[in-house]
Amino acid sequence: MVIHIVRWCILMFTLIFAIVVLGISGHLIAIRHTDYWRFAALAVAVSSLTILTFPVILIVNTFMVRDQNISAERILGEAGWITIMWILWLATAADATHAARVHFFSGGCSFFSGYPNQICNEFRVVEAFSYIIFIILLGYMIGLMVYEFTRDQPQDAPTRQTGNVEAAPVTTSTGGTDPKPRA
């Protein structure tokens, strides 16, 4: 039950942050009529992918999983997709950081006033939220893997026999049994 609550919280926070990144990046693309910043296009693509796929994960895991035991394939599949997404968010954050350092020097937003200050701050918002989403998804993926590899197996799974096993008679090469069991 705890994993369902954690999943809902993490994916909803990520979804909300992705909506913020989509809005800011869309504005950064819209203000340049001739050429656009490439990091903003990547941010729009990755945030759109996040907005389209994370609700599917939430809906499938809410309505399709009725018992407490989630299959290993479903958890590993989710962890695989989350891994792809945190790599994309890291690329978005790194690209936004690079673009901000090229167009505005580090900490340079305070030296601008008016519209350039707003643009500089929008660069920083995309950069910050992309890093936050990356950290959230990386931590969630690590938590999923720890959960998967440390959880107990379902009760109906075959278990190993740990009791004493009596020695079976040893067969000889001729197909008969050896009258003396070997120790």
Fold and architecture overview:
It contains 4 helices and no strands. It starts with a helix and ends in a 33-residue tail after the last helix. Helix 1 (2-30) runs antiparallel to helix 4 and helix 3 packs antiparallel against helix 4. With 183 residues, the chain is mostly helical. The chain has helices spanning 2-30, 38-63, 72-103, 115-150. The mean pLDDT is 81. The protein is elongated, with a radius of gyration of 27 Å.
Label this structure with key terms.
single chain, 183 residues, mainly alpha
Short description:
With 183 residues, the protein is mainly alpha-helical. The chain has four helices and no strands.
Into which percent range does the helicity of residues fall?
55-70%
- Radius of gyration from CA coordinates: 27 Å
Summarize the main sheet. none
Extended strand count: 0
**What number is the mean pLDDT?**
81
Task: Count the DSSP helices.
Answer: 4
Q: Give the DSSP E fraction (strand runs of 2 or more residues).
A: under 5%
Given as residue ranges, the uncertain stretches (5+ residues, pLDDT < 50) are none
What string, H for helix and E for strand, traces the elements in order?
HHHH
- SSE-based structural type: mainly alpha
Distance between the termini: 50 Å
Tertiary shape: elongated
